[in-house]
Design a protein that fits this description.
The complex is a heterodimer of chains A (about 130) and B (about 140). By secondary structure, chain A is an alpha/beta fold. Chain A has three helices and six strands; from the N terminus they run E-E-E-H-E-H-E-H-E. Chain A is globular. The chains are: A alpha/beta (about 130), B alpha+beta (about 140).
């Protein structure tokens, strides 16, 4: 396993900031993932998936606590991400741990939908 | 923000969140697929016994192809025995599709837990997403 440089994504109302915590890649989503964010998010996820596979990571943490809303077009980028992982060779697969904000009820519902879609690789957590 | 509008009359954060999600998705669908400059959107909340009935109505023109896809999708969502499973199947079926997967409407049915009614005419579709929501207790008049 190697750590790699992941470029952040910064738009007017939406950002993704990657960081390393030891050997764990943590990705912090912030703002509002609306129709203006979809194209950039899709490209980010594709690039990230390639880098994670190349680095042979086994886990990525997605911190959603500062994400105010995500529309279905952006949500689909996460669906495509999970779909890509599940369709990878078993030895290449990695897990996605989503940290939700309990004060944003939509996150519990949407993240549960992702877990239902990819139960073998999607985890949902609460962190203080 | 959309959620702020419903915070006053609707009694629970989860219900506010469900309605907000539905309105966001419908607004974005109108922006993406409506074939005219001024599609209509009406959101109505009225008392229905001890709860409220929320109705989100839209009417817009669209291409024949879009209308056919919308009709097929809404029919499957309205009659879904398990909307979350229908939603999951749609995710799997459309993961490789760039546009027009219908996830927004499926999300309204599965995550916002609203039901649909719709009417399609020659070149337009009217969709109503509706469901019961808890209301805030009335404040006594001073």
């Amino acid at each position: 396993m190697t750590t790699v440089a992941i470029e952040p994504l910064a738009l007017d109302n939406f950002s993704i900031v990657p960081s390393w915590e030891g050997s764990t890649l943590r990705i912090v989503f912030s703002g509002n993932a609306d129709m203006d964010a979809r194209v950039a998010l899709e490209a980010f996820v594709k690039r990230l998936n390639g880098q994670v596979l190349a680095a042979k990571l086994k886990r990525v943490v997605c911190d959603m606590r500062d994400l105010y809303f995500m529309n279905s077009a952006c949500f689909k980028c996460l669906v495509q991400w999970i779909d890509s992982i599940v369709k990878s060779d078993v030895e290449q697969q990695y897990s996605l741990s989503f940290i939700k904000n309990p004060k944003m009820p939509w996150q519990a519902r949407s993240l549960e939908s992702l877990r239902h879609f990819g139960p073998a690789i999607v985890l949902i957590k609460i962190e203080p | 923000m959309v959620g702020d509008i419903f915070g006053e009359p609707i009694g629970e954060a989860d219900a506010i969140s469900r309605v907000t999600l539905a309105v966001h998705e419908i607004l974005e669908n109108l922006a993406k697929y409506a074939a005219e400059e001024a599609p209509s959107l009406c959101v109505e909340l009225r008392e229905d016994g001890d709860a409220g009935l929320i109705e989100i109505r839209t009417k817009n023109r669209a291409s024949r192809e879009r209308l056919a896809l919308t009709e097929q999708l809404l029919h499957s969502l309205i009659h879904a025995a398990d909307p979350r499973e229908t939603y999951r199947e749609l995710m799997a079926r459309t993961a490789g599709q760039a546009e027009g997967s219908g996830l927004g409407l499926a999300r309204i049915r599965a995550e916002a837990e609203l039901q649909f009614a719709f009417e399609i005419t020659a070149d337009s579709v009217e969709i109503t997403a509706f469901g019961r929501v808890p209301l805030q207790p009335r404040r006594p008049r001073s």
